[in-house]
Amino acid sequence: MGVLWLRRGSRSLVRTKAVLQDSRPSIYSKPPRHHIGAGQSFFIMSVFAVAMLAPAGWILHHLPAYRQRSRPDPQDLNPKT
Known about the structure:
single chain; flat; about 0% strand
């Protein structure tokens, strides 16, 4: 029984090794083909920051209005027919 388990384990190791060998050609050690300048990097990082912070800023800005809004009655949410 132990030998059968060992053979299954060695097969999975061989498959794992084959997958790792297949993924290695996608790693490049050469310089980039297209140089990205400082202006482009700054623009992209600014867009990313705005995309992440704008929704949080909107919620924080409107938080007093959310607090003043009255809560609906539970009876209004679930009307009995």
